[in-house]
Amino acid sequence: MQAILVRAFGAPDVMTIETLPDPKPGPREVLVRLRAVGVNPVETYIRSGTYARKPALPYIPGSDAAGDVEAVGAEVTTAKPGDRVYINGTIGGNVGAYAERAVCGTAQVHALPDTATYAQGAALGVPYATAYRALFHRAGARSGETVLVHGATGGVGLAAVQIARAHGLRVLGTGGTETGRQAVLGQGAAAVFDHTTAGYLDAILQATGGRGVDVVLEMAAHINLDKDLGLLAPRGRIVVIGNRGRVEIDARQAMARDAAILGMTLFNATDADLASIHAALVAGLATGSLAPIVSRELRLADAPAAHEAVARGGAVGKIVLTV
User: Fold this and answer.
1) 110 domain residue, yes or no
2) pLDDT single digits (tens) 162-195
3) Are 33 and 72 in contact (CB under 8 A)?
4) Is residue 15 in a domain?
5) C-alpha distances out from residue 244 to 47, 168, 223, Å
6) Burial of 139 (0-12, 13-18, 19+ CB in 10 A)
7) Do 222 and 255 share a domain, yes or no?
């Protein structure tokens, strides 16, 4: 099979396409012929060697993909050859999804409805699971509350908008481009603000009648965390999804509101957490309330270009590799 292999940490060009033996599933495993693979920002950090968790070299990057079940182990009863599926992970710490085939555990394989494309299935795993865990497992968001998605135009942000609206939350968002803001409005946000302009924080407060928001999903805490505290309603919660440096905050703002600042990473999700998350995502796909936005499709061999595009930012939705 063709696969992307990383033999040394570094720039995007350390990723090369190579021919490797086809994998075979064990008794409790599923072999998936992949058709599309999602590219996530965390994969660029891991490849560069700057991430806290590093796989053993050489390794195949990636965790999110979609395709067709090609074979199953003798003890597998939850999937069969021919099933359309998306995956959120593979078996083995250094054998990922940037490949034509992947071996998965049964808990990593989920039904992909005929109404969803393979590219949409590949856009689900990390972004949608992160958004769901942030909203419900960490923030405890409830129907009727107002959530601010601070950085709503990326993969996690758009996922959060769709998921929050499907659960009856009022959504406000921020974005740096007009194209991105229009996309967020198209997914059901009540209002979207340009975070590059002066006065946008006052505009957000005005949109809540001065009360503030109940939940903030924060993609760039090193820039926004102190500002976020000033946007919270009483007993508001901020979930830090992304951060690239140290930040100084005025803790009195948290004290006055009985506010909570909550960190999260998807790596900390338990098996039970992941099972509940993907049960919700599969249901959302089936009903049509969730529909991932794919901004760009590249070939598997173009993985270096995909990483460069992800690092630049500005994409509305998800970049995927077609296999």
Assistant:
1) yes
2) 999 999 999 999 999 999 999 999 999 999 999 9
3) no
4) yes
5) 17, 31, 9
6) buried
7) yes
CA 244 to mean position of chain CA atoms: 17
Reported as a single tens digit per residue, the pLDDT across 44-78 is 999 999 998 899 999 999 999 999 999 999 999 99
- Alpha-carbon distance 194 to 177, whole Å? 7
Instruction: Check whether residue 249 and residue 317 sit in a common domain.
Output: no
Q: Furthest-apart CA pair in the chain: how many Å?
A: 61
Q: Say if residue 218 is in the same domain as residue 260.
A: yes
CA 53 to chain centre: 18
Tell me: cis bond preceding 58? Omega within 30 of 0 counts. yes
Q: Is 280 domain-assigned?
A: no
- Residue 160 amino acid letter: A
Q: Is 103 helix (H, G, I), strand (E, B) or coil?
A: strand
Q: Quick one: pLDDT at residue 244?
A: 87
For the chain, what is the domain count?
A: 2
Structural domain containing residue 145: 127-266
Whether residues 92 and 165 share a domain: the answer is no
Cβ atoms of 123 and 64 within 8 Å: the answer is yes
CB < 8 Å & 24+ apart, contacts of 269-274: 269/129, 269/133, 269/137, 271/107, 273/133, 273/137, 274/88, 274/107, 274/129
Question: What is the model's pLDDT at position 101?
Answer: 98
Answer whether residue 198 is part of any domain.
yes
Interatomic CA distance for residues 261 and 259, integer angstroms: 7
Sign of the alpha-carbon dihedral angle for 52, 56, 60, 63: negative
Please say if the pLDDT value at position 313 is more than 80: no
* Whole-number Å distance between alpha carbons of 229 and 199: 16
Residue 53 to residue 46: CA distance in whole angstroms:
7
